[in-house]
Structures
1.
Amino acid sequence: MNYKLTIAFDGASFSGWQFQKNAPTVQAVMTEAAQSFFTSPATVTGCSRTDSGVHADNYVCNVKTERTIPPDAVVRGMNTLLPDSVAVKGCECVPEDFHARYDCKSKEYHYKILNTNIPDPFLAHRAYKFGTKLDVDKMAEDAAYLVGTHDFASFMASGSKIVDTTRTVFNTSVERDGDLITFSISADGFLYNMVRIITGTLIDLNLGRAKHSMREIIEMRERSVAGFTAPPDGLYLFKVNY
Amino acid sequence: MNYKLTIAFDGASFSGWQFQKNAPTVQAVMTEAAQSFFTSPATVTGCSRTDSGVHADNYVCNVKTERTIPPDAVVRGMNTLLPDSVAVKGCECVPEDFHARYDCKSKEYHYKILNTNIPDPFLAHRAYKFGTKLDVDKMAEDAAYLVGTHDFASFMASGSKIVDTTRTVFNTSVERDGDLITFSISADGFLYNMVRIITGTLIDLNLGRAKHSMREIIEMRERSVAGFTAPPDGLYLFKVNY
């Protein structure tokens, strides 16, 4: 059996999704819960790696196991076995060849900025606190240049081994709700640290400390001309489409 | 000098506001930060005790110390010394006789219910997860009976030594935002566990498992006829008025 699970996790206490020796990961916690629930071997495949501290509203993974159990019971049972920081929100049975990573058509990320000097205990590790007032309209204008099919090499962490750095961004938006700014971006794929580097670039452009415009930064295909890498705390995998 | 501080805290990691030996409290953390910041003895007086696990959006305390420092600098400095779970949101200089508890005119509490079977990692310890669907309109109708000056003995934890159990409730409301229900109540004062017992009573009335109506429960002045004590996780001190 192959189950497609949609999960949410608070990434603050995890060293990302992907298995690591001697570090807590969401994949390890999910695999342990699945093997305990199904009382049989179970392999858990995620839709993407995530960095340490990154969150997910709707991450997708698929679980392969020998046992057949109704999806509703999988949701209930898994949630009794998972820690508070991870929750299964939905489950469906999918064909044996469904693969959470390879079959993904697009993803949407959100990046949350707490735009004030006053900390919020309820957003600690869940947003990037940035005190200097940001102009959301300018952020939205700059972000709109990303839409379309571009070579996004400027927004890939240096050292990444990916060769084809062309991706298609479908949509961007920047919205303010009080002190909380949410930058949303959907694309057919993302390079390593792409959303965090784009966020840092939007902030640098806002503060007038970037040497080039967003259009130029895209065209230059050079990591050094883009902005800083915003911290993982504000990043959420919001949706994965198949 | 006497400073009035408005603070927010995530109560999940604290055994309430009030000093305790061998248990982490918000008062201890605030006192330690104040003494370190003012580099002088400082006494921190809170507007009320809070139970272990209870949160605050805007708790008020006053800090007495010998040192005179501009309020803005107090906010900034205290926040660099406090853990992520506590934040100073505002500070003002007040007359020497200002007392956070005695001078309080009214308070507003919020109680958050996550009304679904699916856990939310971002609301773990921050809302009461209650799976059975609740009728918010009926909750609001029942809560409205509380408005006015009444003897609220039915909603006081047994064992409390308070003799005068009459309080004036100014306003109540119950609102739903997706799966999250927020019950709000403001009053000139609250008895021990009053909001949590009222919340449990609203839920029991909703599910038809209460033997009496809200009006009868108020009139009977008897803890045993009211509902269960809802857990601390969902309770927030939202505002304190002077």
Note: The interface with chain A takes residues 8-10, 55, 75-76, 79, 82, 84-89, 117-122, 124-126 of chain B (CB under 8 Å).
2.
Amino acid sequence: MVEETVQKETLYRGKVIDLELHDVTLPDGNDAKREIVRHPGAVGIITIDNDGRIILVKQYRKALGKVIYEIPAGKKEPGEDSLTTAKRELEEETGYQAEQWKEVTSFYTSPGFADEIIELYEARDIQESHQLSLDEDEFIEVIAVTLEEAKALLHQQLIHDAKTAYALLYLDIQAQQS
Amino acid sequence: MVEETVQKETLYRGKVIDLELHDVTLPDGNDAKREIVRHPGAVGIITIDNDGRIILVKQYRKALGKVIYEIPAGKKEPGEDSLTTAKRELEEETGYQAEQWKEVTSFYTSPGFADEIIELYEARDIQESHQLSLDEDEFIEVIAVTLEEAKALLHQQLIHDAKTAYALLYLDIQAQQS
């Protein structure tokens, strides 16, 4: 089923993504073009505070043209291992450090056109480090909500992205099993 | 928190995606650039056959460089409503029609750089229509697996995308509640 690249062109090199156009040979020998967005990969952190609430960040997303609430997340730096990214991003975006870390899963967000992979972690036993340090173009508010409050945000489409929707189902299953 | 576009440039218009570069004014008055991938939106169909198995499609994904198993899915045509897309894509990719349709949820896949939204449906009471009609550059195999078999595929990272990972948690919750 493999599609072999005959030729590729990098159409754009950006800060967050690159765009490549590949001429490929299909399994039947015919030709096709594939548009591929390259992304360094990201982590998302399902963060539970010491009262059992979920930590969310409220952020304007230009691509969507709206403000949404998401689990803390961020892009990997070149060569950085995922847990290091997770610890760094949690602290930078929320000012929290966590003692307990657990790998949850990983998934590609848009396999039809992008190689972005998100690795999800669960972080518990948190404390404030006061090391909040947002990127210069990041404007974020941090909130803590119960699972029921988070579900209400989902219903209002104020939670509206894949990693956070996944996180809520994951926590729902945990709640049912406990 | 809104970021106002001062100027935008469409860097690429493609078959699946367009790429825009926006110069924006940040909430603090500073400037920034935002790379935005435009996508028409897609549907994913959590399809359960009459033996309770999950219908998956096996497909090579050039962006990932590997074959993965996903729930049936596809892009919306201009002006098409989501349920119509869902029925069309299910039939084109798998040859099945379904009698029972239910909206599950929707989510943005990559809010940091793309406006792609996936609307998820659950389809049951299926029958073969023999109307399989793949796009000329699509090479797909259709399989039916139990939830346990699907979880094994997830463990092997042969299921490895956001919508299908979400679908498995969703079906897991249904199974626990029944």
Note: Residues 47 and 123 of chain B are 5 Å apart (CA to CA).
3.
Amino acid sequence: MTDLAAVKAALRTQAVETPSWAYGNSGTRFKVFAQEGVPRTPQEKLEDAAKVHEFTGVAPTVALHIPWDRVDDFGALAKFADDHGLKLGAINSNTFQDDDYRLGSVCHPDAAVRRKALDHLLECVDIMDATGSADLKLWFADGTNYPGQDDLSARQDRLAEALAAVYARLGDGQRMLLEYKFFEPAFYATDVPDWGTAYAHCLKLGPKAQVVVDTGHHAPGTNIEFIVATLLREGKLGAFDFNSRFYADDDLMVGAADPFQLFRIMYEVIRGGGFTADVAFMLDQCHNIEAKIPAIIRSVMNVQEATAKALLVDRDALAAAQRAGDVLEANAVVMDAYNTDVRPLLRELREEQGLAPDPIAAYRSSGWQERIVAERVGGRQAGWGA
Amino acid sequence: MTDLAAVKAALRTQAVETPSWAYGNSGTRFKVFAQEGVPRTPQEKLEDAAKVHEFTGVAPTVALHIPWDRVDDFGALAKFADDHGLKLGAINSNTFQDDDYRLGSVCHPDAAVRRKALDHLLECVDIMDATGSADLKLWFADGTNYPGQDDLSARQDRLAEALAAVYARLGDGQRMLLEYKFFEPAFYATDVPDWGTAYAHCLKLGPKAQVVVDTGHHAPGTNIEFIVATLLREGKLGAFDFNSRFYADDDLMVGAADPFQLFRIMYEVIRGGGFTADVAFMLDQCHNIEAKIPAIIRSVMNVQEATAKALLVDRDALAAAQRAGDVLEANAVVMDAYNTDVRPLLRELREEQGLAPDPIAAYRSSGWQERIVAERVGGRQAGWGA
Amino acid sequence: MTDLAAVKAALRTQAVETPSWAYGNSGTRFKVFAQEGVPRTPQEKLEDAAKVHEFTGVAPTVALHIPWDRVDDFGALAKFADDHGLKLGAINSNTFQDDDYRLGSVCHPDAAVRRKALDHLLECVDIMDATGSADLKLWFADGTNYPGQDDLSARQDRLAEALAAVYARLGDGQRMLLEYKFFEPAFYATDVPDWGTAYAHCLKLGPKAQVVVDTGHHAPGTNIEFIVATLLREGKLGAFDFNSRFYADDDLMVGAADPFQLFRIMYEVIRGGGFTADVAFMLDQCHNIEAKIPAIIRSVMNVQEATAKALLVDRDALAAAQRAGDVLEANAVVMDAYNTDVRPLLRELREEQGLAPDPIAAYRSSGWQERIVAERVGGRQAGWGA
Amino acid sequence: MTDLAAVKAALRTQAVETPSWAYGNSGTRFKVFAQEGVPRTPQEKLEDAAKVHEFTGVAPTVALHIPWDRVDDFGALAKFADDHGLKLGAINSNTFQDDDYRLGSVCHPDAAVRRKALDHLLECVDIMDATGSADLKLWFADGTNYPGQDDLSARQDRLAEALAAVYARLGDGQRMLLEYKFFEPAFYATDVPDWGTAYAHCLKLGPKAQVVVDTGHHAPGTNIEFIVATLLREGKLGAFDFNSRFYADDDLMVGAADPFQLFRIMYEVIRGGGFTADVAFMLDQCHNIEAKIPAIIRSVMNVQEATAKALLVDRDALAAAQRAGDVLEANAVVMDAYNTDVRPLLRELREEQGLAPDPIAAYRSSGWQERIVAERVGGRQAGWGA
């Protein structure tokens, strides 16, 4: 029997970090469709993020991306966030948009390019010091497009060297989160293609280095919740980059493509102690064609709904069925939780917290969208451009 | 026993069409790395294409992409091509880079957007009339990102309507080539996702409508040569868009990722009568990080090498082994051709045609690259931008 | 607003066909694990199927597989079914378990083998005449393992010839249902690998030939509901073989791997008119490690739940959002139906029909499992063996 | 410039281990096609393996599979091998064909089953002591078919416990080689699904534990040579199970599906020092439809040809191009080696070693096939049956 009060208590502790760049324009290699009302500055992104938190109650932090969110005074930006009820979250580095990075950044054959990339990573730690961010999130677009283009193993050596230098720079309470990605933008080999590679590097670096699981960064058919369970078992799961995909790194709203998978992932997080531990739940999405703020609200709600379902799993009944080798009953226990409609529970929870029960409707009737469309005219809309 | 003279004779008839856009800049959604010496105009693209043909002898036509290659006077452009030893090839439409096309073009729910897209397609036929191009190549980025976003079947109705209107506009000797693509830029459903969908539309349209096989547009594990054989058997194979990929639509140099697959495809083309029939062999690639002109020369050579190997298959021995049910021997006959090093044969062929035996070396020593780097300064480099 | 009475009325018409072979033993190439109580005869399979229908109310027909279900008197078997409240459904041919079929059946290079296979197919139509079955379901294991092993196109010619001969033999009210499969047991090329190939053959054969969609027979990432919509639009969707998979043709319980996909498929069936038309909903599963009868009951219920959710989609609201180009709202309408817990509705429906609200519990307390375990001792358990 | 004498010298040191089970019957879940002349005993398998070594000169060892190759006196079997010019190679355990293993072996929820499985693994080490085999190769079919069926993390604990017990039993000069597999026969989660999981276990066990890369055990699109390079860099690559596949674990002849991939793998082996180190090159294939002995000869030759090509890579020229960031030139250096026809070199090498230049032809004219077909009549043909 599941204890509903405990489920609600757990849900009250949940926090989903939204990424500053999801509020700006994004697209595919074919086209970036601009949307009205998109922020022009890091501050405007934070204003939008504050709305997401206002209506969901579970999105209190915002990840920054450097240089997209570079400001002169990061302390002031942290204060701005604080004034809007937010904290600044992970600092995300960018070593893929400078012309020098055509053949890689920290894995580049040229030491000068590697040095430039490393300097950027170290700068990101400086920014963490200024913002009070605990996490440095590293994703490298490094890789090769053609067999032979570069030496796969030498690139690992260069990567290890850069990571060690950054690791040495981390202060107390700061972590390095290393992300892996199956492919794109490199097409033959990426330098951190899978969790095993990220894990092996983090293991050598030490306890402050952990792995990021981006749910869109795997080969077709990969059992992501197995990886989650394994990394938790090894103490090396640092964070999620949530999004969903049908094919590659589609970066759609989390839960949109395979909500059952999201539920299974959240179940393993909870089962493995990751829900109460230091695992960060971040979104990393691109709202290429849909309205951005409501899409982010929906995504946060999708994580919340999957979490609620995972919390509802009757773990005693499950353990009993597993011990008995009753395949159908064990599966049925899990499916029973998944098939439950948790939306009434979450509406109730929101009302208990003084929130509107339907965050999307509340946002739509708040007038914010109309206001930003009217006010954010001129200037340069935020996007992936450096 | 294979007749080497016949192989050479067949190779002399080969023609590979290069795409104007491969000479310009391209990239991923993360970054477009600009290269020095890249063309600024359609004319400069043709100058580069002329070099590819000059050194390979088998790249006599160039595909255009509208609006990227829009000029005031297409007749003059055709004349320019002719003066450079080239002909203008397929006209490629673009209904994906206008803000109106956020939710599709000919499949868009709004009739006004559909009309705009159709007008563009009809304009492309006008351009064909002016350039003397025989082929209209249609690839639609249309699709949906989220379940429910639009009605899958209604979109097919709209697509069929637009195709019928374009088909009706085709003149004598003009074809419509319909391309399919598994995913990207749409992530949930593309409106022409597979050869079956393209085939079903072409069948209803009539004999002037045929299917384009882009070798990068399939689900993982798809047996492309089977599709080639099937479309040839049905009389519906119109053209190839050649490129290679490890994962998705990587658009790498054809033959770079899986040269054995390219050989198998060319074998089915030859076996199915496609080599002598009206099948167009086009490249559609992105040279994001490698030098563009030599990459295109290499790609043309890769097609040539795969063709030579496919022509070398001892078809009598193969048929005998197949009839006898000798799996190993039949496979060995095919592998024997594939394992042959055909580069000496092709060097010999080039010399017989008055060409340098090594096109890459010849290009490198020609001074062209240095010249365009020096001369093409200023202006706006060609790329995918509308 | 969805009309609940109409939803219930539609659900009352639903029929899911269970396959005789799912009641017998099955396994992987590594091991077939025998289970206690498994049927030894076609009659015992029908007894089990009768239980599934008794407790679910929506499984009134049973598919046979020849020769696994060969009996001396098929008329008597039909009578036996009738006496147990069932009808005999589709006749499934088997041209893959005779030593002669090592290199194929109707596509085999040797005409004698092809003739033998054809004779078997024609015998299956004879059986249909005896059982009153309307559907001949054809799945061919034909294909090749190595490039060059056989001529891909010649095999299509042989296939077409056999299909034409069988088609000519069909009587009034009889259909040929042609199944496609991406791979397995052939590994290089299967002779009917995709819906396009099956469609092209059926189109030439005529209106009695239609395509079977087995939900486990696609390349990774394939959008199955798109195929469903397309085949319905073309009038060529004949039947489903339902099951679920994470990787290949796993043949797990339908709805177990991706329940959201099953819902999307059922939505397209309903939207395309397939729910009221002559589309047969069959299971084709292997219960390798779980108890067979309750697994089949669960599978039938999963189809029913997905159907109920699909019927709940507010199609007016959906159409309005689609017309308006409101991506998030259109998706939300679909997700709202999917997120609904339909189990109370289905329990209510069962009670209205005089059934127990929980079919699994009812089966478990019926004593049937204990009885068959006790009684079905000795003899040869049914399985895939010829 | 590549030193041909050094290439030949390296090739002379090559050894490929053939698996005893590849000489017996195998098949898919649909059918095992028996072949004439197939061995009935471990001794007859060794006789066939001796022929493969006789004609290729590079297949001096044979892997055993327990219990398929169980004999009363393993010392005598080793002597029998020795008398036929062979050594016994790796001992392969089997914990998947007993009815007790329906829900797993060392990961089973029931401690009694785990104990039984562990006892089998320990028995395999006993056999190693008797045969003088250095390698214990462990592949576990363990996994789950349905979400919730068992606890993913608890299964890892059980696995770790069993591996530790086996590891403790290993003598000097004995290794444990742990194999991973993406899926099959388990369909939801396999307990060692990827190299990262195998690596993490081996790391904890110690230096005698290393990872086996089976080339057919990966997700679609996985860059296998990257894994090879990484494991070599970490000192954890123990062995290969070579085979090839188009889709899943097809177990076709190595080099048959993607010879370029095999070449790239061999290049990374050589580059990473694996060719001279203790990496075992084993075949693990199923010759379901083709003649077994010549298929194995062909497979050995395919490995040899890929090795020769990889040895031919001009590593100085490659390193120079890589350092210069010349993508096309670096790729060209690799492709130049791959495109070389190494068959004349290998024929020459064989003749220098007193072998026939064409092993397949030599086998065919040796009369062995006719002899075993004639003599091996009656008895029970070897296969996967326990």
Note: The domain at 14-310+367-375 of chain B is CATH 3.20.20.150 (TIM Barrel).
